[in-house]
Each structure stands twice: as C-alpha cells, then as structure tokens.
Amino acid sequence: MRTFALFLVCALISGTRASAEVKTMTLRQAIELAMQQNPEVMLARLDQEKARLQAVIAHDPFVPKVFAGSGAAYPFGFPANIEGEAPSLVNVKTQMAIFNRPQSLQVAQEKEHMRGAEMDVSKRQDEVAYRVASLFVDAEQAARSLEAVQNEIANLKRVHDLADARVQEGRELSIIAKRAALDIRRAQNQIDSLSLNLDNAETSLAMALGMGPDDRVRAAQEEPLTLAVPASEDATIAQAIQDSRDIKRLESDIQAKMLQVREYRAERLPKVNLIAQYELFAHYYYQNYYANFQSNSGQLGASIELPLLVGHSAKAYMTQAEDDIAKLRIQVNRTRAQITADLRRAYQDVKRAEDLREYAREDLDLAREQLSIDLAQNDEGRLPMAAVEQARAVEQEKWLAYYDAQHTAEIARLNLLHQAGTLMAALK
Hints:
- This protein is an alpha+beta fold.
- The chain contains 11 helices and 6 strands.
- The model is unreliable at 4-10 and 12-18 (pLDDT under 50).
C-alpha cells in the first residue's frame, strides 16, 4: 500500500506540472491506464485500504501490549503508592483480551466491511471502464464524421464552381449557385460542430484517464469495435443478478449488520483479560518497614468482568440494526428488479440500434450504386459533372448517417455488457 500511496502522490504532482499534450491510444491501452490512475478508482482503493486498517484496529485488543517504565521516588516516612503504583526501579506490564465476544464480533464486522470495500473497487473499475469505452467510441465517431464532412464539403465546392460557371454562361438560373453556396455553409457549420465535439470527447477521455484538463487523448484508428452480445436474454439476466456487485455489496452489509446484532447481544457475556506485571523494588525504600523483603515482584493472572446491568441502549441498538437489515433486504429485491428492467431495455436498445445501422448501411450502398451509375453516364456524356459531384456529396452524407448509426449501436452494446457485468471481460 505504501507503493500505491507513493504512486498517488507522484501522479498528482506530475499532473500539476506536466504541460498539455495529445496522446494517441488504443481502447485497451486507455482502459489499462484508467485502471491505474483514474481518480475514482484510486479513491476506491484508498477506501479499501482504510477498511483493511480498520479491521487491524478492531483486532488490536487481542494483541499483547508491553509497557516498561520506572516509578522511583525519594522516600520520606512510610512507603506509599503513587498514582496507585508502588515506587519501583523498573516495572513492566502487559495486557491483552483473552475472551471478549463483542470485540470478536466487531472484528468480524470490519472484515465484512473490508470485503464490501473490495467489491466497491471492482464496481468502480467497471464503471470507469464503461465510461472510458463510451468516450473512446465518441471520439472515434466524431473523427470519422469530421472526415466525412470534410470530404463532402470538397465535393460541394466543386458543385458550386460548376454551377457558378453554368450561371455565368446563362445555362442555369442563379438560384442554383445560391443553393450550392448554402450547402457549403451548412457543411462548414457541421465541421465546426464536429470539431468541437471531437475536442470535447478527447478532453473528457483524458480526464477519465486521470490526466490534466488541458490534455487530450486521441483514439487510435482501429477496426470498428466488435462486442459479442449474449444471445439468451433470460440467461443473461439470471447471471447478472447472480454476479451483481451491487447485490453482493448489499448482502455484505446485511452480514455486517447481523454481526452487529450478535455483538449487542454478546454484551451480557463475561469478558476475560490477561494481566501480567513485573516490578523491581529498591531495598532502601522498604527495609525499615518490612521484615521480609524481596526486590523482584511479579503477577500473572486474568481479570474477569461480569456484566450485571447493561442498560437499555444495547437492546435499542440491536433493534436499529434489525431495522437496517430489513431495509437492506428491500434494497436487494429492488436491485434485482432494476437489473432485470435495465437489461431488458438494453436488449431492446441493441436490437433497435442494429436495425437502424442496417438501414443506414443499405442506404449507403444505394447511394454508392447511384454514384457508380452517374459516373458511367458522365463518361457517356449523358450527365453533367455537377450532377456527379452532387451524387458524391450525397454519398458522404450517407457515410455520415452510417457512422452515427454505428456509434449508436456500439454504445448500446457497451451499455448492455455493462449492465450484465461482463464488459471488462469482453474488452480484454
């Protein structure tokens, strides 16, 4: 843990001093980096370490402790105790709980909390992986769409030049050139908007990776993300409920509360502590008052504490803990229902998104086929070049629509796998 804390400090210092930069990463590289230095993951790990140390603190009464010191004093009159202790040259004491049922149950509670903190780390890692993957897909889609619009505006400019030439020759109305100029303005507005979206996506991705607010992470050009969606909806729901970290966290909280109830009940049990002590007395301090004197003195035994009246607070605390258990069980049932509803909705979103992507693909294929026909007719002299360039611009618009549909489908698949709790495994 010391190594992790040192890494945290170094990461924060380097983050404040490093200049802004643009890094190009693959999706797997981005997720690996996020698992190392995402602030939310790092905070969850610190909470996990805190829970582990809390378990160590709770177990501390069962660990023997040894104290050494001196209580020497100048004698005057009859030997007397000072602060309950006889004056001695050297004294050594030890203490340790031998039997303390409430404290033992508290140790069990802290261990359960430690297990829950571990689940919180895993849950936070899943959430960060989903966010990083979504932002990565956003950056990819923005870059591809920007490229498509840039290609489109090049075609639109050629259309405008051809239309303007025909207007100058008196072969077209001026409104044709005005419409072509308006199409260029529309495409330029799209470029500005997509450029801003790309900057925001790359900046948000850098922030999710624990980098500075001025840094940017560029998505490396890869094949489109292919994530296999489980075929059986009911089996996926059943497995998601079984593996849900939210449910396991709530069940861990229930176990901790049940241990707390047992702890309050155990307040009526006796407690046994180890007692051991050694003292070395000075001869001059006692020689005038005791006929028999021994310099070395030691005691070894146990103290037993029997609770006779413990009051009403233990019973009140126990009732509160039982109420908390009832609330947690309601939350477990509600979480199961929420997982089922979210996964059913996620499957519907995936199907709808894939249908839209298929339609966009067919529409794109039709535009490309039409462009091929227009090119052939232009070669034969039956179609002007302006019409061909217009067909190219239409094709680029269809590419843009296809990228949007593909992006929607990828996000839907990511969400489904995230809801099912299998996203991390699918991305490896």
